[in-house]
């Protein structure tokens, strides 16, 4: 059935149902607009404290982030492989580095397996080029002071737990990141482990590679979209230490909360519907008319066309450019797919002197943010260091105690090269299989090792670079006939900006461990440059926001420069990555775009009436 | 409706696709009901979707998994794990004994392992359970079992199942027998939540509730 541009079926069609779409869809449906959400993934069983999902997780051998999401409604063939991406991400010959961030195609998107970390960008993050001569500036209309109100609204919507005093005394005074409203909830209680780190490093000064000892270390509470008390009908956290891959208690916010509200307000959701093309009007191609999608029902696949006044693409930093490129839409700048960014991670592991009792509570409760901004950003990337509460299992399924490796090639003991008989793995397999422990010695080893495991996890900003990009594969399509994403990616094409950051991160990890009096023999560092790094799951930059049509894809309200009725929501619009976990900014931008989307609907309605 | 699209073939299955495939290939269980009925804790929803777990074939053991075997299994398990309170969880012990006895890779290894353990002296009991006495006793276990290449593989699986509720075995679903990687094979919710590791370190199995809000700020008394 062809769409009818004079009387479209919906006011707003959302492609995707993650947090970006869910929050905006809710507000628009509440304002009585006719809203449709099209989601490629299925609906996960959500009843009875998500026990079906929990059982899937328990039964899985690897406990990967996607392990709970399995079943008839959840088609594995449309998902990027969580461990390597090799079945989904394509790479050209000679590609330098693997892109290690993935996502989930489900109703609710990747908020099913996020940590709930809710950190705002800093004022300087919006002006990297002006302040430090690197990266790009965000549009003048999209700076911290113009977004602050929307951050605050989003925090009320999702429920954020944070420390107001700390925000004022540290985040505002040091970084200028003021808050106009208090956090909706008191902060998540810091862990026992956090207190040990804080006691060792609080107030100490770390001298970085630039030689300026300007960075006083503070261990600070991490704001989370995790309930510290009953909020919006969801309970306080009961510390299951499994935010990734699953919060079974629903204490952590996920976008399903807003999808349910949107549905209650009259929005429509069509799951298992993969959008394959955005349609343009047959005239000058200035307007979009709707989308084509394929609905999968068991083994049947049916193709449909649906029309709308407005199309909002909110399908994450990988699928959004893929759809735009496949539709040849919004790309007069030739920047769709370019500037692919993540927050590359370096981790270090250690055994503390005294037990710190990890494997308890939310996966992170405190961090060190001293290096999120400073003059050093002229020379190397900023970073943020999380103190992990989940022992050495932070790289889910790869490290102990649930892992499958008996040796750990990815960490280097500060004194000695790793040996399979040493404690570099900390897994039961290593203790029993390699070290031959059993009985009382095994019990002692398990207690002694696992109660002292600590991990520092530092995520770095990555500069935008046109050469890091997503294009359409010329050789492989998905089951719907859409080319798979081909990724061109390197970490070392920034004149050493990230490499110098990694070097400083490792030095900082050593510093923290030394302050904790951890002997060198018990420190394991990823001191190997770009050989070992992690992905944060933060896919940014592929439909960048800007003031000029020729150098960006969307304007400050997330409207495509090329089309008056096409909007793009999500981290793909970020011009720079900063060090903030992107969800807070995604949500703020989505709420801010609602007014512009509503106005655009009214304009399109008036035009349609006039033409009729 | 614009038409029906075709479904392309996929050469490699994703991990979940693989799980679904192996699930359908599983062989039905053939277990005698000689083990005492289990009283699972909170296990009222079964084991989740069959397609979402690795299904392993089960075999009928060539010996009875009865109370006598379970008693011997508990004594041996206490020696191998170093945790001397396993006899207080007889149902869990029976379940683990059954899992081993019905596992095709382990079923024939269990009786000789139990026999070897029976021939060792009993664990020193108070007041003779000094560290020195225990060490001497464990040296005998080491020589008879852990240094024996025929017995050690099964002994390791006994330790793994108690500590993590899982075996670490080659994946029988891999068609190429030379390329079978070892994977963790977990039990149900009850087994998972009761892995020894977690109680020994004062924690909880990931995904299982840890306690009231804020418990993670407290120290732990082990």
Kindly provide the radius of gyration of chain B, computed on alpha-carbon positions and rounded to a whole number of angstroms. 21 Å
How helix-rich are the residues of chain B, as a percent range? 25-40%
Helicity range of the residues of chain A?
A: 10-25%
Order of helices and strands of chain B: EHHHHHHEEHH
Shape of chain B: globular
Q: Quick check: average pLDDT of chain B?
A: 81
Shape of chain A: globular
Quick recap of the structure?
The complex is a heterodimer of chains A (612) and B (222). Chain A is an alpha+beta fold. Chain A contains 12 helices and 18 strands.
Provide structural commentary.
Chain A has 612 residues and is of the alpha+beta class. Chain A is 25% helix and 17% strand. Chain A is built from 12 helices and 18 strands. Chain A has helices at 19-30, 51-59, 128-132, 144-158, 164-175, 192-201, 256-264, 316-327, 428-434, 439-450, 497-515, 583-611; strands at 10-15, 35-38, 205-206, 215-216, 219-221, 268-270, 273-280, 288-297, 300-313, 345-351, 364-368, 383-388, 412-413, 453-460, 469-477, 483-488, 523-525, 566-568. Mean pLDDT of chain A is 91; it is low at 1-6 and 395-410. Chain B is mostly helical and 222 residues long. Chain B is built from 8 helices and 3 strands; from the N terminus they run βααααααββαα. A two-stranded antiparallel ribbon of chain B has the order 2-3. In chain B, helix 2 (67-81) crosses helix 3. The longest helix of chain B is centred in the middle third of the chain and has 16 residues, at 131-146. The radius of gyration of chain B is 21 Å and the shape is globular. The model of chain B is unreliable at 1-47 (pLDDT under 50). At the A-B interface, helix 2, strand 9, helix 9 and helix 10 of A face strand 1, helix 1, helix 2, helix 5 and helix 6 of B. Strand 9 (300-313) of chain A pairs antiparallel with strand 1 (3-4) of chain B.
